[in-house]
Amino acid sequence: MKFKTAGELQNFSFDDAVIRELTVDEGQITFLFEGAIVKAGNSQNTRMQDMYCGEICLQLQNAHILKIIKEGYKYYDANDQLQEEVPNEEVPAPAQASVLERCGSGTLFTIVREQDDDAVYGFGIDVPQKEDEDEIDTYWLCLKFQQDQEQWDRFQTPLNP
């Protein structure tokens, strides 16, 4: 890939980026995204404005999954009366591989750094349900890693031309 950075996760926006591939190998987690934004402060961005990039590879090194949480929900009727409540649920270890496989075709809606630990991040991912693709399951991948590396081939259009 033509452009490479390391330790600049904060200089990207992956909000609403489509995940094309997600692989978990021993000590490394790799995402392949479409639709990410290289922020103006990025060391490789000479245009000094937020720019879309094409396909981008995010590698997390010395990484491991702390836990995966399926986000719960609340349903209310038109009168604002609670109809159903499903709490957050931690995905057990035996089921994590299938959840990760599903996340490989999801949409990342945010990355949040934990306040108490700079090396721990939450990746919020929306994944269409198998039975009904109009319905979405939301998962939080809680990851700990030592180094992030980003690679992409080209810049596309500015975010706000």
Q: Ends: how far apart?
A: 25 Å
Low-confidence stretches: none
What share of the residues does DSSP label as strand, in percent?
Answer: over 45%
Helix content: under 10%
Whole-angstrom Rg: 17 Å
Mean pLDDT: 93
Number of beta-strand segments? 16
Order of helices and strands: EEEEEEEEEEEHEEEEE
- The rough form would be described as globular
What structural class do the secondary elements suggest?
Answer: mainly beta
Strand order of the largest sheet: 1-15-7-4-3-12-13-14-8-11
Largest sheet: 10 strands, antiparallel
Tell me the number of helical segments per DSSP (H or I, 4 or more residues long): 1
What does this structure look like?
Helices cover 7% and strands 54% of the residues. The chain has 161 residues and is mainly β. The strands form 3 sheets. The protein has a 10-stranded antiparallel sheet, with helices on one face. Strands 2-5-6-16 form a 4-stranded antiparallel sheet, with no helix packed on it. The protein is globular.
